[in-house]
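Holo prediction — iron/sulfur cluster.
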Amino acid sequence: MSIATVTRQIVHIEDELCNGCGACVSPCAEGAIQIVDGKARVIREELCDGAGFCLGVCPTGALTIETRETVPFDHDAVEEHVASLPSTYIAQQCFRCGTDEDHSPLLPVRQQGRSEWVCTRCLPALIHG
Ligand code: SF4
């Protein structure tokens, strides 16, 4: 029996722009993105919720959100998948003060052409100087 499809938002990876750096793997809490043969891939579309937390960290602009027909997002599949992943979690750090995401919420920012993470304490100074 095939699963009914829906029209929803999902991550699109532009192959030609992807350099395989892997920066987008960690921000994806659902484990939907992996590097396969040197390129980022959404390994199973039901794992990608289209929230786009991966977009801000991509140094090449390879990631976008598109709206198209695909399988529905599946919370149960995500829980099962995440539980099966090896423990490779590496906390991201604020590029200004070095605090990590275990101690302060971090937001993706573009800074002088680079994708960085900034903590909520440093964000006001970044905005207002
Ligand atoms: S962050 Fe961008 S360039 Fe790096 S692997 Fe992911 S899609 Fe490719």
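READOUT: The chain has a mean pLDDT of 91.
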